[in-house]
Known about the structure:
CATH class of the largest domain: Alpha Beta
Low-confidence stretches: none
Strand order of the largest sheet: 2-3-6-4-5
Number of domains: 2
Radius of gyration: 22 Å
Amino acid sequence: MSFDDTYKTVAKQAESVFMDKCSRFIGYAIPLKDAQDVKMHLLKIKNEHPKARHYCWAYRLSTDRTIFRINDDGEPSGTAGKPILNVLLSLDVTNILIVVVRYFGGHLLGIPRLVSAYKSATTACIKNASIITEVQQEVYQITFNYSAFSTVMSFIKKKGLSILSQNFTDEYVMLISIRKKEEAHILHEFKGINELFFKWIKSL
């Protein structure tokens, strides 16, 4: 049985501004490949908005709907991070970080309006973004002897695999990417190359 190994994400950063009772909500939609990059993006946005009251955010990674994190950053629990995440789930976009910066306008909004404001800011910045469809890729390291080089390269070319990097010392070490839905088939065929000694390590 086949499965869909594509997903939707944003091509590049997009922004939006939403106002409610003099509070200004500035939304940022940012492409995200690794959770470790979240801190860098937050720091950059905080430096751009040093006088803001809140920097609320949520991110999703991969097509697994359980891989996410949210942060209300001082807003009442459940009024910021969760509404942001719910928009991402509703629109089915992933590998994305949403940060909503709030400048407090002097008027309390109350729980329903806060939830609505963060939802609206998120929806607006995604609407302003260019949505693209990407293919899930798995990264493997293969290691082989020089005598197998021509065989390996011929196989890689035949299967249309992408070489991410290559290095050689005593052996040849190569990083390749394999489309998710072709992964099991490609690895099975690799094992059929008798003269090839290789091992694979999934990239994090």
